[in-house]
Amino acid sequence: MSTHGYENGRLDLPFVGISTFGKRPYVSDWSQINADVAILGAPFDAGTQWRPGARFGPRAVREASTLFSFGHAGAYDHEDDAIYLPGDVRIVDIGDADIIHTDTVRSHANIETGVRAILAAGALPVTIGGDHSVNIPCINAFDAQGDFHILQIDAHLDFVDERHGVRFGHGNPMRRAAEKSYVTGLTQVGIRNVSSTAKEGYDAARAMGSDIMSVRQSRALGAEALAARIPQGVPVYVTIDIDAFCPSIAAGTGTPSHGGFLYYDVLELLQHVAKSHPIIGIDLVEVAPDYDPSGSTQILAAQILLNFLGFIFQARVSGDPT
After folding, report:
1. CB–CB of 302/65 below 8 Å?
2. Contact call for residues 170 and 131 (beta carbons, < 8 A)
3. pLDDT at 72 over 60
């Protein structure tokens, strides 16, 4: 095959230029979003209970994503015999929500504003955290989008109601989500080991409609059967905490928990969910790059997001859920 056309213009290697997500166009005016997907950074980590650093997650994941920005290589997957994210899937990066140090309420409000702007433009919002508390404003922004289910991929349940007056930290987001009238239930997978949530939290989660699966339970079922546990016919919002993965491949996180998922455990689950359900929003949180000098954690995060987006739009083209 001729490669003559690839010699025109700039080579634009990954280490050249500005690190937007996947080197996609940057849109600074949130009233002018014209895309299928919009990436929002939420560099807030004041909700963390132990090691901070996830405020640097959006920047690190963006830089890592440039590894997958070779335009001439395409996104062909020989296993699936599919070209993922072709040029007609329009992805833009709208930058970061403004973070007000020490002010959770205002910082979350700014994140919510960004997600609402993406939804108003008819695009799929993809929010990169930040700690898991940034999921709270993301879910708040969906109050006019109709009913949906949440798939949480995480080591921790994050179902604390209130602890010492704290209701909006990174241990609270799934409880806050479950309280929403438009959230019909949660599927929480990867939950394992001694957790930050007490037994009462597990009881409350199940009483409020949660299906909770550990890594070992998920593997015993397999990705297809695990995806089938999500109620059929409902849109799905997916929230991915990077600590769902084993710290042997994702050390760069504030609260690592051994025994986590490996790459294909999660990738295959996401592929099945994308085929069986409309995906209406995504966040990926808790990447704290300073704890992983190798950079592998942020590469994993970028790779998961880009592949998941590929699955979503491939399903739309093939007539699966939209």
Report:
1. yes
2. yes
3. no
